[in-house]
Automatic annotation (TrEMBL):
Name by which UniProt lists this protein: Ig-like domain-containing protein
GO cellular component, one term: extracellular space
UniProt similarity note: Belongs to the MHC class I family.
Gene Ontology terms describing biological process: immune response
Amino acid sequence: MKKLLAFLFFCHVACSVKHSLILFITATSGVPDFPEFMVSIQVDEVQVGYCDSNIRTAETTQDWARKFMKDNPRQLEYYVKECYNTQHFFRATINSLMKLLNQTGGVHILQRMSGCEWDDETGEIRGFNQYGYDGEDFIALDLQMLTWIASKPQAFITKLRWDTDKARLEFNKNYFIHLCPDLLKKYVQYRKSFLQRTDLPSVSLLQKTPSSQVTCHATGFYPDRADLFWRKDGEELHEDVDKGEILPNHDGTFQMSVDLNISSIAPEDWKKYDCVFQMSGVKDVIITKLDKSVIRTNWVSPSGFPAGAVIGVVVGLLLLLLCITGLFIWRKKTNGFRPANTSDSEDSNSDPN
Ligand SMILES: *[C@@H]1O[C@H](CO)[C@@H](O)[C@H](O)[C@H]1NC(C)=O
Ligand SMILES: *[C@@H]1O[C@H](CO)[C@@H](O)[C@H](O)[C@H]1NC(C)=O
């Protein structure tokens, strides 16, 4: 019995091959401080997109979907346009329903749940498009018969009206039987490759002042199953280290850092230390040796200039001196200052010098 339960549980997780792409649309009338129109797009029951009458654009709410829209800008354009067009259809529909049902005011809600399911094992596809009004089923599309079915007597007039719109019925058929499943398959495939990727980070050593701790910072890795630690002679260090949490970056990747207190490390022992980034399930590690020459810092010594800067300034002064001397000699010779691009100008000789 236990075995069977375990199998059923396992199967629920691993054998679940039914995918879905569903649009939930809600239009309201008479509800203050609430968008009159909202759309939520869900893939496998997770919201990936959203739009409403206040924001006036379509937003993506999952990293993979954001990336998908970036790679397929026309799809996003389509959603933005649809959001706008559907909004007008819903407003008109809710108004005509209120008239039809003798409702002069009050709060009314028109909802639509539409989309498709795809079983990636059997290939079976099912489309659906149904409306609810004031919290009850109202009308639904029969995709086989290509006709609307009134879920309650009050919806019958609407059914008769909508049945005359053959173009809309044909569009619905094409959308729910072809376009929607095609898009759903694309989304599932895209999400899979997006989530299965591994991005390795760039790792750098940072330090505020020569005496402060050295921070080993890794950024840009994906997924967040990773570890970053300091080693001495190849052994992970637990003392004198301060490990930070894994934090999300804006682009969906992650970053983390681990500090090493170097105050008690003798200069000749530095070479025994390194910082290791390891991604779970990935063999290669990124090793960064503790080495003064690779540490990045913004620190400038307050006492005296760094040698490089001194040499730079001296060379600069010498060049300036040469230029001034050269200019002086040149001006003596020509007895005038000629701007380079107006060498043929008559004015150049009128210089008081
Ligand atoms: C709406 O009112 C009209 C006339 O007042 C009536 O004939 C009709 O049956 C009503 N409809 C509903 C759905 O109540
Ligand atoms: C580093 O270690 C020294 C002593 O070993 C301690 O005095 C100091 O506070 C530590 N620095 C930090 C930032 O933890």
